[in-house]
Write the structure tokens for this entry.
Amino acid sequence: MRVITYREALREAMREEMLRDGRVIIIGEDIDAYGGTYAVTKGLAEEFGRDRVRDTPLAEGVIAGAAVGAAMSGLRPVAEIMTINFSLLASDQIINTAAKVRYMFGGQTNVPVVFRMPAGGGAQRGAQHSQMLEAMYAHIPGLKVVMPATPYDAKGMLKSAIRDEDPVLLIEHELLYGVRGEVPDLGEEYTVPLNRGDIKREGTDVTLVTFSRALHLCLQAAEELAHEGISAEVVDLRSIRPLDLDLVLDSVKKTNRAVIVEEGWKYYGTGQGIAAMIYEYGFDDLDAPIGHVTGVDAPAPYAKNLEKAVFPSYTDIVAAVKKITPVRSGR
Amino acid sequence: MVIRDLTLAGLKKEQLLNLHYTMLLMRHFEEKAAEGYTLGKIGGFLHLYTGQEAVGSGVNLALEQNDVVISSYREHGHALAKGVDPNALMAELYGRASGVSKGRGGSMHIFSKEHKLFGGYAIVAAQLPIACGYALSAKLLKENFVTVVYFGDGAVDEGAFHEALNLAQVWQLPVVFVCENNLYSMGMAVERAWAVSSLEPRAKAYAMDYEQVNGMNVLDVYQTAQKAVKRARETSMPTLIEAKTYRFRGHSMADPSSYRSKEEAEKWKQTSDPIVLFENALREAGIANNDDFKKNDDRALQIATKAVEFADKSPMPELQSLTEDIMVDPTGAIAWRRPR
Ligand SMILES: Cc1ncc(C[n+]2csc(CCOP(=O)(O)OP(=O)(O)O)c2C)c(N)n1
Ligand SMILES: [Mg+2]
């Protein structure tokens, strides 16, 4: 095992898949000359040539559409959308084409495309640059939406996404690129499936259900809770659609309590969808109402103090857990 | 020797020196903002206008107070030209309650109702269709204002640019589209992004009047804008102006600038600094001298310095303001509970 950053893990995944399969190409804004907005694609144009690593004009609609068309006709495109906020300009092709064509053309065509994009806030980038929006895509049948939170998962899931026959949105987080973690040595081939969550910390008293950067807040909260005698299990969904519901339900069966933690907005979002499924399929296992820690129901403000207040912190998680979890005596 | 009643581009000495001052204010303001960013007082993204001052100040001089300006995230210069208070502008960059947008917007989202500076937008090209809407209001409500919208060479590649130009032409909207072609959209060189070498064919494609201008020459910019503004005001017809310019700094403060050579940037700074070029023109015409320039420089630096002091001592926004102003109707918030 080595320790590398999330950014490097993504780069390695693309590099290895490009070496393995000559049909894999990367297109996107500022992936070459600029060095990659978040430096994920750095060096790939030099290594694989500018036929396969293509800077595009500033036009998300055609990036998405061309990636979808290329995927339908034999290439395996990885389209980098600079951030999920700009994916709204690409969303027509993602939602109306990528997610639909296989079905509406009677199963005659596939769309093996990957859209990579960071989501999230926390760097004072303001209302138009700090959104999560994964729930919008996860709402759509015909798309896979995965959100790895560690370098290991990022590399393994991006490799799986590139090999997948269906359209996959791999949603990164602007504040995860520098996060370091253990990843198998180069040459040690591995992938992570797109339909499996992962228990990132075992516990017995309460289940924290989370994904993306909020995972790291949950791990911090779990550590704090352990000092206070509460044992929290942290379930990293890794994939939002498909959702590893059994992993969540099995954990809730054990702990009888759940707190869902996400950075995005509360209403009609990913967390509420998961809560509804826990209530629907695991109601009898619950000893308390499900807790839900989210971003404040407001656009992201710029000012430092306001931004700090808009996104959830690990102390919010600790408080939400304590609200529904009695501290057992004798520990 | 300075002769009192000389003019350039139809402008008198006082007007010309005001124009010079505006450009210097932009220059010093942005340098102070860069310092604030380096000190960690300004966060997020910071895109500076340095090098492009002639465009915003030249166009603005062709406007009346009632005219509307809409822009991108690179809008500090446009705001200063439109008369936005440098203190409130810097306070916005600092994320303070006294900022133009109450600290909620930041550098990319400047808006001043009072000055009809209607927004810095951070989704590239979004401002062009929005400008069409403002121009439609001007037309239908018979308010005789002209709308100017600024955008970059990258924005031209978005569908929104094409949709907006076509609509403005078929609906005969009083809008002036000003493309500040600074040769790069982030790291994408314009010659790699565009299939054409100027915007003329794109304007032609929508049967729109087109003007290309040296965006480093403030008087050329002014005179070009004058024509376009007049056309909009008198005939309600749009114009596409392409101002050729160069940003002296990186795309944003986070830009490593690896896509262009230091020599290229140096050459532009040495030979095409719009402030230096304007000073040369004023000097050669015998209209103003170095003393005049120095006075403006001192004043601009002093105003920019004061703006930093003001911003720095302004309070942060109150925490309760986090959920204010989301909508006009507070019961529009989701899951609003009836008072019982
Ligand atoms: C729709 C959209 N895509 C991408 C971005 C990221 N982005 C911000 S500015 C920029 C370059 C814009 O270049 P240009 O239009 O030439 O304006 P300039 O920055 O040179 O003033 C990019 C790609 C964005 N903000 N919005
Ligand atoms: Mg540009």
User: Anything to note?
Assistant: The mean pLDDT of chain A is 97. Residues B 152-154, 182, 184-185 surround magnesium ion (ligand 2) (CB under 6 Å).
